[in-house]
Design brief:
Blueprint lengths: L8 E6 L2 H12 L3 E5 L2 E6 L6 E6 L12 E6 L4 H11 L3 E2 L11 E5 L5 E7 L23
Parallel strand pairs: 1-4, 5-8
Antiparallel strand pairs: 2-3, 3-4, 6-7, 7-8
């Protein structure tokens, strides 16, 4: 029998738990749902989505992420450009130029700890039923990175 599995948490290693949790909670407009001395969970990403979590580690980030988040930003709310301004105000830094400016712009960013993520403009909101890997991805999301 094949075990039934699902992704419950997306965990980001950090050296400053409070700063990282505050940045991501503000960027994604999520509440903290659990806090321990070495761990913070934010509210679930979508109705049945995984939880974005932060784990306190002693070492600084030294190399490029092997996994990163693509954050879909609705075009009607300003898209990747508006989300980039918000990320910058919260302590994020751009890690690339703005790509696809003539259609669906996207850009690579770093959170205050240096973890990379992409802000990707989408022309319409993604429904929870469309989540779930490449097969369920909106065709309007420009994959970045």
């Amino acid at each position: 029998m094949t075990p039934v599995m699902s992704v419950s948490n997306l965990v980001i290693d950090v050296t400053d738990l409070d700063r990282a949790a505050a940045f991501w909670a503000a960027l994604l407009d999520l509440d903290v749902s659990r806090r321990e001395s070495d761990w913070v969970d934010l509210a679930a990403l979508g109705a049945a989505g995984p939880v974005l979590s932060f784990q306190l580690v002693p070492e600084e980030k030294t190399i490029k992420n092997r996994l990163h988040l693509d954050i879909a930003v609705e075009a009607s709310s300003g898209g990747a450009v508006a989300a980039g301004r918000r990320a910058l105000a919260l302590g994020g830094t751009p890690a690339s130029e703005l790509f696809g400016a003539d259609g669906a712009p996207w850009q690579v960013w770093r959170d205050p700890e240096g973890n990379e993520f992409c802000l990707c403009t989408v022309s319409s909101p993604r429904s929870d039923s469309s989540a779930g890997g490449a097969a369920g991805r909106s065709a309007d999301v420009v994959q970045g990175y």
